[in-house]
Amino acid sequence: MRKFSVSVFRQQFPILQTVNDNHKLIYFDNAATTQKPQAVITSSVNFYQQSNANVHRASHFLSVKATTAYEQVREQSKAFINAKSIKEIIWTKGTTEAINLVAHSYGMNYLNQGDEIVISQAEHHANIVPWQYVAKVTGAKLVVLPLTPQGIIDLTAAKSLISKKCKFLAINHISNVLGKINPVKELIKLAKQQGAVTLIDGAQAIAHLKVDVQELNCDFYVFSAHKMFGPTGLGVLYGKQELLEEMPPYQFGGEMIKKVSFSGTSYNELPHKFEAGTPNIVAVVDFGACLRFFDNIQHDQMATYEQQLIDYVFTKLNDIKALKFLAKACPDIPLFSFTLQGIHHQDAASFLDSKGIAVRSGHHCAMPLMESLALDGSVRVSLAAYNTFAEVDYFVEQLHLFCSGEAEQSNQHRIHDHREGVEQADVDRVISTNAEFISADEVLALFSSAKSWDLKHRQIMLLAKQLVRLDKALRNEDDLISGCESQAWLKVKFNSQTKQLTFQADSDAKVIRGLMVIILSVYQHKTGQQIIDFDIEEYFSHLGLMQHLSPSRGNGVKAIVERIKQIAYNYQ
């Protein structure tokens, strides 16, 4: 194996060469998904060009070739986490489905009234909701382990909460919000002393730690390929063979059967008993390429480099006075969640996006944790071994500017971009002459001059100042728009004579307020029918803001539009 080199490592990820609006991509959202090396990308092409066939059942040479490649990866996965047998490696769609499989096949069949399912305060929704449902159906009780101020599961509290009633323990190896390694080995031991079965969510750990399931002595371990430079749509469920043998199938049909007749059906042996239907063959084969890619990495050296990144980022972020980490002390993996005093997390993320820096904002699928911290969300920055100190420096520099207000102050100055011909004074003039609301034509004029996302973002933030804020006393639950990760409110007045609707809107995120101004530029003082007939997607497309109408964007703009249209239907 060659010595680890970040520059050589980066070269294997084509997407990292992306340039958007003159900003080179800085990808700091690795906890959500990692980027893919050329070896994994090439694997997909090669499989479809040379080996594409269904696996196991057919007798022709292509099927034999595909099946051989497919099952070889099971052997690789077994070795990767040190399972005892390939029968203990089950393919799933991802970590979420793996947890659901265990909840359904084990939880629904072996947990009973009065049993306790123990989870932690920092679990991903995927490791909360399935167990809530199991508890509801079976009569079991959900017990939640608290965290220490350092953001790890409180082992002292666990010793009293994991009682003889505990029949199942389901906890994360590393929190996807706090980035701290939990004392899973000790917790597994505590649970087993009470006779409980254990599941470890390793989604965030698998790319950073050497996982040995036999050493951990867990009953189930789950993770996703896409968190470790592998393909999306593939997860691994490790389960001890004796438990998997006892558990009934999760789904039925296809590969999971041995014999079917109208008098009865017998099920296939492990691992196929839990793999109904045509699997995601190419993803499995690509995962094999991913594991070979891992084999060629000097892991100790990569871990040393990641630790240097962790220390560097933590020190740099500590210098920002407005920044507050969600947990004390440095994280164990390069994952940092924080809030900024007086600044909404969506505003910070959208600003960084305008500078080419990809981060995550919101509740990170950990709403109970956010509730315990009295937060509605945070900024999350997560790095991988292909990230550099230079990228960190640029990110911290931009965050300093944003927090100090210099970025916003620069928006007030007269800006001339020789490449795009933008005059910021035009924006100031339009806003100052439109005290009530800006028209759609004026919005189109503003955005036609702003060619880059950086400049479009500036326009959105400037337009936010035009929105008259709602008095806090008027922000009630009935007017709250569901689907926004920031809180957003919408009030409506109907003029019975003109049949027109007038809206008042507000949000605690500045970027949403700016987008609300743009939305109201076409909906304000219109009839219900006019609102319904207007093509908002075409309008946002002309503005170059279609990404904000995507549900995956997470900022709730689509939810705001849908709420306005629902109101309009009531006033046709």
Please, could you describe this protein's structure?
- The protein is of the alpha/beta class.
- 41% of the residues lie in helices and 16% in strands.
- It has a 7-stranded mixed sheet, with helices on both faces. A 4-stranded antiparallel sheet has the order 13-14-17-16, with helices on one face. A 3-stranded antiparallel sheet has the order 20-21-22.
- About 5% of the residues have low confidence.
Topology readout:
Elements: H1 6-10, E1 19-20, E2 23-24, E3 26-27, H2 38-50, H3 61-81, E4 89-92, H4 95-110, E5 116-120, H5 129-138, E6 141-145, H6 155-161, E7 166-172, H7 184-193, E8 197-201, H8 213-216, E9 220-224, E10 235-239, H9 241-246, E11 257-261, E12 264-267, H10 281-295, H11 299-318, E13 323-325, E14 335-340, H12 345-354, E15 357-358, E16 360-362, H13 367-372, E17 378-382, H14 389-404, H15 406-412, E18 416-417, E19 422-423, H16 424-432, H17 440-449, H18 453-463, E20 488-495, E21 500-507, H19 510-523, E22 526-527, H20 528-533, H21 536-543, H22 557-569
Parallel strand pairs: 3-15, 5-6, 5-7, 7-8, 8-9
Antiparallel strand pairs: 1-2, 4-10, 9-10, 11-12, 13-14, 14-17, 16-17, 18-19, 20-21, 21-22
Helix pairs in contact: 2-10, 3-10, 4-5, 11-14, 12-18, 18-19, 19-22
